[in-house]
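Bug #77: duplicate submission created two jobs. Keeping one. Sequence:
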Amino acid sequence: MKKLLMVAVAATIGMGSVSTAATAGGFNVKKCKACHAVSKHKMGPTWSDVAAAYGDEATLAAVFKGGFKVEDRKLANENSKWKKKAKLMTGQYKKSIRGHEEEAAQALFAAVKRGKI
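Kept job's structure:
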C-alpha cells in the first residue's frame, strides 16, 4: 500500500513539472516550441532575440494586442529570413495567441529568464 501511494505521489509530482513547462506564465507554449526555442534558432527566431527586440512584456503584449501586424514585427523587419516566414506566424498568432496576448508575452519572458521553455 505504501509503495502504491509513493508511486502515485511521484507521478503527480512528475506531471506537475511537465505542466509547468508547457504552461509558462499561464500560457500553453506547446505549439510555440515547434518553431521557437529560448536560445537556439529553429524555424523562427529565438525567444531571447524576441525579448531583446521588444524589451519587456508590456511592449510585446501591445504588439500582440494590435493584431501582430507585419510592420510591428521588429525581427521580421530587420532580417529577411524571418520576414519570409512572417505569413506562417500570422496563422499561428490567430490560432494560438489571439485572446491570450498578455499571457503569451509573460510566457516568453518567463522562459527567457529561466533559460528554457
